[in-house]
Amino acid sequence: MYLTGVTAMLIQTFVQVFSLVRTLHSGLWHTDSEGNTIVLIKGDVPPFSIFRHIVMNVQDSEQHSLYILTHEQEHILLGHTYDLLYFWKP
User: Fold this and answer.
1) What pTM was computed for the model?
2) Whether the Cβ atoms of residue 20 and residue 85 lie closer than 8 Å to each other
3) What strands lie across the sheet with 28-31, from one edge to the other?
4) Are strands 37-41 and 48-50 parallel, antiparallel or unpaired?
5) Coil, helix or strand for 81?
6) Where are the domains of the chain?
7) pLDDT-based confidence at 57, cuts 50/70/90?
8) Where are the beta strands (DSSP E) in 1-90?
9) Which residues contact 65 (CB under 8 A, 6 or more apart)?
10) Contact status, residue 52 vs residue 34, Cβ threshold 8 Å
């Protein structure tokens, strides 16, 4: 029973990581003034940051770029990716 649970959680983790990598590689990459990579995605993706990558959709970039970039740059500066990884529960 334990191994079944561990296997299911590993599969779920790999699927989530694969989905994240696919999302990052599907967009246009730019660098902001802070040295972070901005990834612009076509479609409906809520803005988020992971390590030094800021992901947002094209429409948000056109309408709210300054606010989103400022917000996500703070997350990066404060290391919130590491907080999420530390407290992550699948």
Assistant:
1) 0.80
2) no
3) 28-31, 37-41, 53-57, 48-50
4) unpaired
5) helix
6) 2-87
7) very high
8) 28-31, 37-41, 48-50, 53-57
9) 56
10) no
